[in-house]
Amino acid sequence: MPLTRFSVSLDSRLVRRFDARIAEEKLPTRSKAIGDLMRAALVKSEWAADGEVAGAIVLVYDHHRHDVVRRLTQAQHDAHHLIISTQHVHLDHDNCLEIIAVRGRSREIEGLLRRLKALKGIKHAALAAGSTGRKLA
Amino acid sequence: MPLTRFSVSLDSRLVRRFDARIAEEKLPTRSKAIGDLMRAALVKSEWAADGEVAGAIVLVYDHHRHDVVRRLTQAQHDAHHLIISTQHVHLDHDNCLEIIAVRGRSREIEGLLRRLKALKGIKHAALAAGSTGRKLA
Amino acid sequence: MPLTRFSVSLDSRLVRRFDARIAEEKLPTRSKAIGDLMRAALVKSEWAADGEVAGAIVLVYDHHRHDVVRRLTQAQHDAHHLIISTQHVHLDHDNCLEIIAVRGRSREIEGLLRRLKALKGIKHAALAAGSTGRKLA
Amino acid sequence: MPLTRFSVSLDSRLVRRFDARIAEEKLPTRSKAIGDLMRAALVKSEWAADGEVAGAIVLVYDHHRHDVVRRLTQAQHDAHHLIISTQHVHLDHDNCLEIIAVRGRSREIEGLLRRLKALKGIKHAALAAGSTGRKLA
To answer: Is ipTM beyond 0.90?
Structure first.
């Protein structure tokens, strides 16, 4: 993992404010803080440009209703090429939190999110947009 | 689970456009489509108002670097009251995708996200903002 | 402007929570509240699908620096087909807030936003994603 | 406006990818690109922390309906301490785009956004979250 060292010239007040933020967020160094901003920008671009990405789809549903478990299983099998694994949490007697680890082209993952969200019985769906890490150095 | 039935009066053109969207998204009924929008708005408010929420934090990191595995384990144990379970994916030889199922007050979960993101070696962190489902009917 | 009246069947608890939100937000009726959610979803889709949209680009810059005023004027003239008009606020001795009313295809407007943001001297750029209103009934 | 010069050490692959992005976005220098990311992060924090901010509220409405013009004028006068000026666009025979330049504490501006959005006749409301520029160097 070779490093590149370069220098940056910025307004002193901006640097002071950014340093205050670094301290507040307990980030170890300016390089880590700047690298984080760069990587977040690159991941956002990967999702926008239909790149290969990874992440998680979170679903909330009541397992008693609408035969949702069977239909959810079916829909997940149809998209097995996008799904790595699933983690299931029993939130209470009725509610389930299902977290689906996904990997693939961003458009396909967004399509899967829409399909799962559309299922009768699914109360809520959310996405954590991550990365395969490969291009993040 | 008692149902409430009520009627809505809206511009005919708006209803037509919304129906086209329902067809496109393959949503089963207008009630499901409208319920989804309501629930998404309520979940957003819960997160904004520091309510009790659930969801997933997604981390991407290179397990070889900076002793990140040990420090990540430590940080997660410090927040064990917010963490339900963890799912780990070996993306490739170097990169890991770790998905942490979380539950608690939204401020605390956002604080945990910041703490994990700040760790040296973590390349990217993302959040899927879900719900405990309780108040979503 | 003909109206369409239809009925919706939803969980009673969900309806109660949504009604509480309606009261909190001081929305006049359920129909207005539901119509707002529908319109917001449709506007989001219009932006995603490169539809004809309208909105505002907000820029913050220091007019003393980098000949930014001249270059900004130039860039805006190059995109005159997307720009309706401009509102300029003198925030203080140095800082300007320039608000550019825009209308056109969403991809073109996002391209314009990127071009303006890239200009030396522009400190910050933000977008308010609105609509031409035509398809919102 | 004194400058601070400092050096950053980052993965070579990350720097290469970021440089490709800089070229694509036509950003003049790495310093401008990194400064933009820093400022965007700081502006986001200012909005989250109820700091003094500036920006624009965009409204779409049909001026024929619900006496919306009178009620909108009233609501804006009630919030005159937050509103700098207003730009009005006649989108077509029916639809108006009104862009309100705002400045004040972020909570107050978000409250104003909610109040305006709740008015009968307002079809859509959006916010461009900007800055007073003061702390952006």
So the answer is: yes
